[in-house]
Design a protein that fits this description.
- The chain is an alpha/beta fold.
- It is 34% helix and 18% strand.
- The relative contact order is 0.20.
- Bound molecules: ligand BJW.
Length: 240
């Protein structure tokens, strides 16, 4: 952290663990999403081609859950928004999450590398649309008027995550890299710590438990995100 100056750039990677205390399930923890659904069925292009209705139902349920007024940003989302607002240098938040809790907390310099639950994409025109309703096979694509032409705007296994060029550019210029609430099992996000380390950044993991790539971080804060993230953000802001 000694190299961290007020003008330094910070890159933050977040995963499902940061939204756990807001009431959203993680994927790989006990009782997580992948203990209830086969990822091959609901999170691959092949699964969507085989049974699009099943995939729609999976995302419809998650979309409705995100609309539940009980699901709100927590102290960890709030702390990251504060960091962006108060840190003099650039703060880029890269999230693997498709929920909108970072936006609701006030983060603005944000990349959703695995897409967004409140967006859908036309299979015919590739246009991305804001969307909060259920999707069915009968839903008409607004661009073409044809049914069955919309898919969730999410990145499934085997698909290219979004805005990778901008992310790698930021990783190559950052002085601090923070990874929060992610198991480090899904690539390319799991590799970001190496990219940041190679660029000379100080790398910190904030997670409930050591992640798969824990040994590659220089510092660890283990605990619930709502506890460890605000404390760490205060430490960073004290270096202004
Ligand atoms: C708390 C907490 C609390 C709990 N406080 N913490 C073989 C080897 C290497 C790679 C591959 C391979 N075979 C295939 C691949 C590539 C594949 C991949 O990585 N597979 C692995 C499973 C091996 N990746 C892809 O296909 C990606 N595309 C790609 O690689 O394109 C080529 C490319 C290469 C190089 C550059 C560029 C491109 C696409 C991946 C798409 C992932 N999609 C999903 C679903 C869609 C979105 C959705 O429906 O939500 O995205 S999968 C799912 O996993 C979701 C998540 O974003 C993602 C990551 O999960 P995350 O966030 O880490 O959650 P968990 O549950 O795993 O972990 C939660 C953590 O929080 C835990 O550690 C808890 O302890 C902690 N926690 N409570 C703090 N309160």
């Amino acid at each position: 952290m000694e190299k961290l100056k007020p003008e330094s750039s910070i890159v933050i990677l977040t995963g499902a663990g940061i939204s756990k205390e807001s009431g959203l399930d993680t994927f790989r923890d006990v009782g997580g999403v992948w203990s209830k659904f086969r990822l091959e069925d609901v999170a691959t292009p092949e699964g969507f081609a085989r049974d699009p209705q099943r995939v729609h139902e999976f995302y419809n349920a998650r979309r409705r859950n995100l609309l539940d007024p009980e699901v709100k940003p927590n102290r960890a989302h709030d702390a990251l928004a504060r960091l962006e607002q108060e840190w003099p240098g650039e703060v880029l938040l890269v999230t693997q999450n498709i929920d909108d809790l970072h936006e609701r907390a006030g983060s603005r310099n944000l990349i959703h590398m695995h897409g967004e639950l409140f967006k859908v994409r036309s299979l015919y025109t590739h246009r991305v649309l804001e969307w909060q309703e259920d999707l069915t096979l009968e839903t008409l694509c607004p661009d073409t008027g044809r049914p069955g032409g919309l898919r969730p705007h999410v990145v499934w296994f085997g698909e290219m995550p979004l805005e990778m060029e901008r992310i790698y550019e930021a990783l190559s210029n950052c002085t601090l890299f923070m990874s929060i609430g992610t198991s480090g099992t899904v690539y390319p996000a799991a590799n970001f710590v190496y990219e940041a380390h190679q660029s000379g950044a100080y790398t910190v993991e904030l997670n409930l438990e050591p992640s798969n790539g824990a040994t590659f971080f220089q510092s660890h804060r283990h605990g619930p995100a709502t506890e460890v993230v605000p404390v760490f953000v205060d430490e960073v802001l004290a270096r202004r």
